[in-house]
Amino acid sequence: MSHDHALEEDLTLTPKFDANGLVTAVVTDVANGDVLMVAHMNDEALRKTIETGDAWYYSRSRKALWRKGESSGKTQRVAEMRMDCDQDAIWIRVEQIGGAACHTGRRSCFYRAITKGDDGAAKVAFVDAEKVFDPAAVYK
Amino acid sequence: MSHDHALEEDLTLTPKFDANGLVTAVVTDVANGDVLMVAHMNDEALRKTIETGDAWYYSRSRKALWRKGESSGKTQRVAEMRMDCDQDAIWIRVEQIGGAACHTGRRSCFYRAITKGDDGAAKVAFVDAEKVFDPAAVYK
């Protein structure tokens, strides 16, 4: 395996942005450790998140910088940020304002479990899929 | 925002692989909820993980399917798998065999915290960065 020792052991922030200028952001709930969502950050989103303590991302579909919760009010206060060994992923522990991170109205975007069915094929089931808010009422 | 209601509400596994045929895998430690690593899965890695209960990934640098721990012995037993709303990310809760997921020898790949320094710029510090194993002894 080829690894970059400097990237791994340095105490400088030198994010390895991909071809689209993005790193992966994994967002967990500081209250219980659950993964709330996976998003992306460009250089500006990362900088604004560090500066303000609110989570900013870059929307690949809308091609725009985006403060989480700017339309829904479900903002995220950053409790801790960490970067990974090769500096292409960021782990953000947040206080999720309004109790729901997912645009579908759920607490977490990960509301479906994958298991192996009796026939050996993948089986999907809702877990923790209750809606905290009504998306139709929140996103006008 | 444009969202795909079927993708979000269906109980079928229809992963939205990216241009390289990959989805993002976020791996957390079932023992304490910490994020251990971020990796990628192609269709075969996902299928083998569901079938075997061991974590398989696709290495972008080596362009190869890879059973986590196949060279280090630090395999991952899957406790739970979940998919996200738009089916381009998978959350995997694992029992980390050997107590370390990172190739640098640490428990987690996220062993550096990012904070805002007194001068307003980003500051990086080691956290939970103790090495559980010596990479030089494990990867020959």
TrEMBL record, chains A, B:
Belongs to the PRA-CH family. The keyword Amino-acid biosynthesis applies. Its cofactor is Mg(2+); Zn(2+). The gene is hisI. Its EC number is 3.5.4.19. Homodimer. Catalyzes the hydrolysis of the adenine ring of phosphoribosyl-AMP. Gene3D superfamilies: 4.10.80.70, Phosphoribosyl-AMP cyclohydrolase. Mg(2+) binds at residues 84, 86, 88. It comes from the Bacteria. Its main location: cytoplasm. InterPro entries: PRA-CH (IPR026660), PRib_AMP_CycHydrolase_dom (IPR002496), PRib_AMP_CycHydrolase_sf (IPR038019). Keywords: Amino-acid biosynthesis, Cytoplasm, Histidine biosynthesis, Hydrolase, Magnesium, Metal-binding, Zinc. The keyword Hydrolase applies. Pfam families: PRA-CH. This is Phosphoribosyl-AMP cyclohydrolase. HAMAP family: HisI (MF_01021). It is found in: Cytoplasm. GO terms for molecular function: phosphoribosyl-AMP cyclohydrolase activity. Zn(2+) binds at residues 85, 102, 109. Residues 37-111 form the Phosphoribosyl-AMP cyclohydrolase domain. Pathway: Amino-acid biosynthesis; L-histidine biosynthesis; L-histidine from 5-phospho-alpha-D-ribose 1-diphosphate: step 3/9. It catalyses: 1-(5-phospho-beta-D-ribosyl)-5'-AMP + H2O = 1-(5-phospho-beta-D-ribosyl)-5-[(5-phospho-beta-D-ribosylamino)methylideneamino]imidazole-4-carboxamide. Binds 1 Mg(2+) ion per subunit.
